[in-house]
């Protein structure tokens, strides 16, 4: 039996869970689920100055919102520094690493010399074979790995193929700083080993690190996990992802009104595909996901596409679920707090009643809420400019006519209302639109809204007649 798969998501808590990180987490989660393995969560909080509790919380909230779960408790990398130090010292004992006492001046000189020779700034190995008894007094050393100097280090990457790194380009990098703290390179290797990680799936900005980490795994005689470096996400124009392109925190996507299932579905297709399948259930995603189908080229983030997928998910959603989702983001959206303050039993039930119609017309929850704004408006309604224009003298005359026709209606259903208004338009020899527009303006305060018969039904008889009366009085 082969060893069970263990993946990990290892964010640095220096900011929110950004969209690239969310995709990395998703791929790790899917692969673990697909293989019946585990995904672990490791918080890489060794940078004490830049790591914050708020960022840890934001990452955890973001993962939970996306429905991505991990096994066991999150592991704090910082809490493992003693173990990292122990491994560094063990490497020294094994002759695979050494204390380096180079002074800042010597290091500066090395860099300058390399620069003058047009070479990358590399450590020259002065303490590699020097007798430690020559160590200057009072200098706290760092520990450096004794990296191979000849040949090459190959990262056998499941996405990128074999990537060759000439060892002369990978110098004796530091694994333990002079203050006894581990470097990122060491901490990752020790943790991945101790956590039993079998598959490292992460952004391809870590590919060079993978070479250095391979050296460390080998130095300890540990198995190198399977590596899979995923191409980064670019903007729709092919440029590096910036804020403008969508390089935002997952929380920003929630506040823009995207559903987590839709975002997840969109993200899985960013750099991975299963034929031409676009919309897929979680079960399908899990059963289809494999590392071998991760694309080699950079994926492009496309808001239009995300919106389209989100719109599809909204239409497929249960009305009550959508209602709950919309209410849950109110505190995060513009004008949402005011709406929240106005919520009562009546408008809640109207909102829910309007959902089948509302969800057909919106691509995001924000749009859905905006389209539903008429439900929450207080009488007399504030009209926007277009609505005001629609309710000119001619509009008001039409509205008066509709009012009397509607007043006598006792069975307030879409069919009945449709019938009454069509009749009215026919008798007045007006096109339906000509009649519907001033009515819409009076009912919603806007020139665009869901279908006017639906609006009448959602608002109910009393509120509808009241709103019309306000405009013709
Ligand atoms: N902490 C690193 C990051 O957030 C990831 C390290 C890793 O996956 O090995 O970019």
UniProtKB/TrEMBL annotation:
One of its GO terms (cellular component) is cytosol. A motif ('HIGH' region) lies at residues 11-21. GO terms for biological process: glutamyl-tRNA aminoacylation. Gene3D superfamilies: 1.10.10.350, HUPs (3.40.50.620). A motif ('KMSKS' region) lies at residues 240-244. GO terms for molecular function: ATP binding; glutamate-tRNA ligase activity; tRNA binding; zinc ion binding. It is found in: Cytoplasm. Residues 119-138 are annotated as: Disordered. It is an enzyme of class 6 (ligase). Its EC number is 6.1.1.17. Residues 5-307 form the Glutamyl/glutaminyl-tRNA synthetase class Ib catalytic domain. It comes from the Bacteria. ATP binds at residue 243. It catalyses: tRNA(Glu) + L-glutamate + ATP = L-glutamyl-tRNA(Glu) + AMP + diphosphate. Keywords: Aminoacyl-tRNA synthetase, ATP-binding, Cytoplasm, Ligase, Nucleotide-binding, Protein biosynthesis. Residues 344-472 form the Aminoacyl-tRNA synthetase class I anticodon-binding domain. It holds the Pfam family Anticodon_2. NCBIfam families: gltX_bact. Monomer. Catalyzes the attachment of glutamate to tRNA(Glu) in a two-step reaction: glutamate is first activated by ATP to form Glu-AMP and then transferred to the acceptor end of tRNA(Glu). HAMAP family: Glu_tRNA_synth_type1. Belongs to the class-I aminoacyl-tRNA synthetase family. Glutamate--tRNA ligase type 1 subfamily. This is Glutamate--tRNA ligase. It comes from Bartonella apihabitans. The lineage of its organism: Bacteria, Pseudomonadati, Pseudomonadota, Alphaproteobacteria, Hyphomicrobiales.
């Amino acid at each position: 039996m082969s060893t069970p798969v263990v993946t990990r998501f290892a964010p640095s808590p220096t900011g929110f869970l950004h969209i690239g990180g969310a995709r990395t987490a998703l791929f790790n989660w899917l692969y673990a689920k697909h293989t019946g393995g585990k995904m672990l969560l490791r918080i890489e909080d060794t940078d004490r100055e830049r790591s914050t509790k708020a960022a840890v919380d934001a990452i955890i909230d973001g993962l939970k919102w996306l429905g991505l779960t991990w096994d066991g408790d999150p592991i704090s990398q910082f809490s493992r520094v003693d173990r990292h130090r122990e491994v560094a010292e063990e490497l020294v004992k094994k002759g695979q690493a050494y204390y380096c006492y180079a002074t800042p001046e010597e290091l500066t000189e090395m860099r300058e010399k390399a620069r003058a020779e047009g070479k990358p700034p590399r450590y020259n190995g002065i303490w590699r074979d020097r007798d430690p008894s020559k160590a200057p007094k009072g200098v706290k050393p760092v520990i450096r790995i004794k990296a191979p100097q000849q040949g090459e280090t190959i990262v056998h990457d499941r996405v990128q193929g074999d990537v060759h790194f000439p060892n002369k380009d990978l110098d004796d990098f530091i694994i333990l700083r002079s203050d006894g703290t581990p470097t990122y390179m060491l901490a990752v290797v020790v943790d991945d080993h101790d956590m039993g990680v079998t598959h490292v799936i992460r952004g391809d900005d870590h590919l060079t690190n993978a070479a250095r980490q391979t050296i460390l795994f080998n130095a300890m005689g540990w198995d190198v996990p399977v590596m899979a470096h995923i191409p980064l996400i670019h903007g729709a124009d092919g440029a590096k992802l910036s804020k403008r392109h969508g390089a935002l925190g997952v929380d920003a996507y929630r506040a823009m009104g995207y559903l987590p299932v839709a975002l997840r579905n969109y993200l899985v297709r960013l750099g991975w595909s299963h034929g031409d399948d676009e919309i897929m259930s979680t079960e399908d995603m899990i059963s289809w996901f494999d590392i071998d189908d991760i694309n080699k080229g950079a994926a492009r983030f496309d808001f239009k596409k995300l919106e389209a997928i989100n719109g599809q998910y909204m239409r497929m959603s249960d009305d009550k679920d959508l209602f709950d989702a919309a209410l849950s983001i109110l505190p995060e959206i513009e004008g949402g707090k005011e709406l929240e303050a106005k919520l009562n039993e009546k408008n809640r039930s109207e909102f829910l009643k309007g959902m089948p119609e509302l969800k057909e017309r919106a691509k995001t929850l924000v749009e859905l809420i905006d389209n539903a704004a008429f439900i929450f408006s207080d009488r007399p309604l504030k009209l926007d400019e277009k609505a005001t224009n629609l309710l000119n003298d001619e509009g008001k005359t039409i509205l008066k006519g509709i009012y009397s026709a509607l007043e006598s209606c006792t069975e307030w259903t879409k069919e009945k209302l449709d019938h009454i208004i069509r009749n009215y338009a026919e008798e007045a020899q007006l096109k339906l639109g000509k009649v519907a527009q001033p009515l819409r303006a009076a009912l919603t305060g806007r020139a665009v809204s869901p279908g006017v018969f639906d609006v009448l039904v959602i608002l109910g008889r009393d509120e509808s007649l009241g709103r019309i009366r306000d405009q013709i009085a």
